[in-house]
Specification:
heterodimer; A: alpha+beta; TATA-Binding Protein; B: mainly alpha; two-stranded parallel sheet; 15 helices; about 65% helix; globular; transcription regulation (chain B); SPT3 homolog, SAGA and STAGA complex component (chain B)
Amino acid sequence: MASAPQPERALRLLARCLIWYPPPPPTVGFLSMEEEETYLELYLNQCAAQDGLAPPRSPLFSPVVPYDMYILNASNPETAFNSNPEVKETCGGFSSVDLSFLPDELTQEDKNQPVIGSKHETEENSESQSRLPSPSDIGLGSNSPSLSNPHSQQHPSDTDSVQASPEKPDSNSLPLASITPMTPVTSVSECCGIVPQLQNIVSTVNLACKLDLKKIALHAKNAEYNPKRFAAVIMRIREPRTTALIFSSGKMVCTGARSEEQSRLAARKYARVVQKLGFPARFLDFKIQNMVGSCDVKFPIRLEGLVLTHQQFSSYEPELFPGLIYRMVKPRIVLLIFVSGKVVLTGAKERSEICEAFENIYPILKGFKKA
Amino acid sequence: MGFKLFCRYSLGDARRPLHETAVLVEDVVHTQLINLLQQAAEVSQLRGARVITPEDLLFLMRKDKKKLRRLLKYMFIRDYKSKIVKGIDEDDLLEDKLSGSNNANKRQKIAQDFLNSIDQTGELLAMFEDDEIDEVKQERMERAERQTRIMDSAQYAEFCESRQLSFSKKASKFRDWLDCSSMEIKPNVVAMEILAYLAYETVAQLVDLALLVRQDMVTKAGDPFSHAISATFIQYHNSAESTAACGVEAHGNAIQPCHIREAIRRYSHKIGPLSPFTNAYRRNGTAFLAC
């Protein structure tokens, strides 16, 4: 299904994937730039260590082992063989992982199942695996785009087999199949593991001091200042790739980051630059103002039907914009839904709002799937 | 012009609209828009302005509430859409900031300010709060929904593409088509947007009316008045073949030029005691479909 150029531009390439950082502990005080970067690396190593897997290989590979194995089997037999003993190890390790993040329905299901020791463990395995694949999916995607293809093929088959276990396609190919009898996971896999990826975050912070924009523009690299057009300095940094608008009042807007942490990090970097130029910059009231996420439901959607049945929430003017604009009330999010199945969510202040909005819209979209 | 064919397909005509009908529709829309532009230019001159602004067009449309409301809704959606798209793409955000003026909801502001100034009875301003369902729009949505339900993926893709066509995409071509350069007073950007929308609406109205006409022509079994169709209407049917072709199945058949002509005739027909006062352009004689 060919989509118009505009959604692609608005969405960027979906191949650019989100690197999923769990939120770090609150930072106190002001870290120097070098410290920031090493801090991040240290934190990531910490996470990998917690998961009980070797950090040297990319930490993103760590959480989901069976998928890891599947991919490695396909491409690199030796490493697969090497990772085998690790896999066996972590199987036991998973049973002790804290599963409180799973929704209540799941833990209910657990209770309903006959509690046999090993089976309970393996169910936890399958559930944690069914949640975790998505970030690792994305992680894998960013590391090896060619390898992500078998994954993307798996997901449609997941969506089709509604009641069947999401892991069934894999269980045949995995040597672990004998250990993990899969049970269908219904409520969590309603979205079949599709997690919206964040594309852009807009945040603001108060540097709490008056700034001389001309001085900043003259001395800073990658800074633009055109007082006749706009009363702020436009500064850009490469890592994380972001743009900042710095005003003379000391307020700053940071855009372009792909995660909350990156946005904060970038804002700190800009504040650092300003500080180095001699201003007593602080870092007050950092607030995320808007988050934009996107995802693909992977089936074409009949927008005419949707606009008719959800009139009070949707507007669809194809000659104006190729997507349907859906204003969800709870949570207050605006979704742009395209015929191709791509969905863009915007207006969120928190990541959970985006996920919740997508979970709300997914069954509706399925109802208007264009066969 | 192939664009027009596509346009009509998306508005409810058959997948391969007739060439003659397309030519006729183009002619009609062109004439109507040129006349509209002339009228707007006159209004503009009365004000002593140098460009045709959206206010002039709104003024011309003041008589027909429903169509005016549809236009207002369109303008608001346009504002809203640019607001959202701005939030998504950071380049857009920067461009907007750099362009200086406060662009948010500009069309809405223009409309609101203007209607405020000309509104004597409060009716026009009441339209902003009015949440009534637009029946015509509803009918078009339902028709589209019915059409798309039975399409397969490939057909649906084609249909969607054709719906995305508009007069506003190729603004320069549109301007040339309307021969704006030869005019003394030219429309500004927002006015051009409105004109593009009105052109689209004209085509949509024509298709709506033509479909109604075609439906009327289907002789329903048991209808006692089926033999008493309008005398002027019969004129257009010279041959038995065309009658048969226009007949039974509403779906899958292209709209014929005869339908269009009949639709226009009925629309401009002065029926009823108040007809001289209901249409905005009596002095010109032509009835505008879009206003």
